Structures are given as structure tokens and as C-alpha cells.
Amino acid sequence: MRLDRFISKSTAHSHQASRLMIARRQVRVNGVVMQDPRTDIDQFMTVTLGEELLQQQTAHYLMLHKPAGYLSATSDPVHPTVMELMPAPLRALLHIGGRLDRSSSGLLILTNDGLWSRRLTEPGKGIPKTYRVSTARPITHETHQRFADGIYFAFEDLTTSPAQLEQLDECEARLTIYEGRYHQVKRMFHAVGNHVVALHRESMGAIRLDATLAVAASRPLTPLEIASIEG
Ligand code: URA
Description:
- The chain is α+β, with helices and mostly antiparallel strands.
- The protein folds into 2 domains: 53 residues, RNA-binding S4 domain (Structural Genomics Hypothetical 15.5 Kd Protein In mrcA-pckA Intergenic Region, Chain A); 165 residues, 2-Layer Sandwich (Pseudouridine synthase).
- It is 20% helix and 28% strand.
- It is built from 6 helices and 15 strands.
- Strands 5, 6, 7, 8, 11, 12, 13, 14 and 15 form a 9-stranded mixed beta sheet that branches. Strands 2-1-3-4 form a 4-stranded antiparallel beta sheet.
- A hairpin with an 8-residue loop joins β6 and β7.
- α1 crosses α2.
- The chain is elongated, with a radius of gyration of 22 Å.
- The two termini are 17 Å apart.
- The chain binds uracil (URA).
- The site of uracil has 8 residues, from α5.
């Protein structure tokens, strides 16, 4: 939102009065006097008018080593949720950037930056997500080919982007997909007559689950990890 509009929306001042105060050098953005009323203000900028603080919000980005058995939800009457594993002061602020099923484990990202998490999860952005998969039946050569060709999902009437399978054992593989559709990995294996028995997310783009992060522990993302999800 433009700075002049931001001031008039967050105070009792008119749009015109807001522009005047900006011109009179009464407005600071992130501590710096801002004289251009067209300056774009996002939710994480600190904005002050004279001594009055109009907005101050810190962006939070964390990775959680999700254990199986926890729901990717903020609250649930029956099952424990991943929010219960997050630092208490942040729980009310955070949302999940790319859910995992209750039975799945691995990398889960939580943030209060909605634009950033949209970039991470939007299918159109094509960010690779890598999963370690264990299946009930052997993974065949045909499965590799079918995944590379894309699997048709009748419900959404779409074909998944070409996905790569790296065979690790007869019933074990590393799968890279470029979307993050509802139950995507399980539905892909179901479509080829197989069944996923364990699913663990290893990475989203350049963000890899920290090998030193204990199950159920979380840590803030590094500035490099945050910047790897570009606008
Ligand atoms: N695909 C699934 O089917 N489940 C997950 O938890 C993640 C991706």
C-alpha cells in the first residue's frame, strides 16, 4: 500500500493531511525519513508519524522437523497439532507454508509472511519439493516413466508436472515434485497401483531439513534460506 494511503488508513488524518505530513518530514519508514508518498509499505515495515508508532511487525520464518502423528493445523479437538511444537509466543502468528499429512514427517515451514509462503507453495512457481517415500509394493520402471510423463488427476482435471524418482531400494525412493497438491505423492503412487507407507519431506527449494534438528524441534530459517524463495 502507498505510504500516504497507509497513513490515512491507520490514523484519523485525511489523505491530503497525510501527504502534507510526509512532505513535512514527519514520517519515518524503518527509521528513515520518507518524503515520497508513493513509497510502497508492506506489513513488516516499521512506520512512525512523529513519536507515534503506526506499525511494527517482525517477520518470522521457521523450519520444524515434523513428527508423524501431528496434524498440520492450528488447532484440533482430537489430534496433537504442529502448532503445539512451536515457541508459545509465536503460535498465534504463524501459518503453515505447505502442509504435510498427519502420517508424514520431515520439513515443515511456518511463517507469518503470507506473500513469502504463497511463493513457496504456489504450483505455478514450480519450486521443487523432495520426499523420501516407502511403498507397500516394489517401485517399477513403469512408475518412473509414468511420473516423468505426469499423472492425470481427474478431480482437478490436470496432469502433474514431470516428477523425478530416484530409486533407493525396491520399495524406497526419493521423489521430486514441482507442485504441492492435496495428497499429491500418495495419489501419484495410488494411480500406478502402489501404496505409500511412509513419507518424509527432505526439502523445499533450497531449504533442506537440518540433519541436526531433532524430531519435533524447530529453528529460525537463515537469511540465505529466506532469500532463496524469491519474489
Ligand atoms: N503428498 C502427500 O500425499 N502427503 C504429504 O504429506 C505431502 C505430499
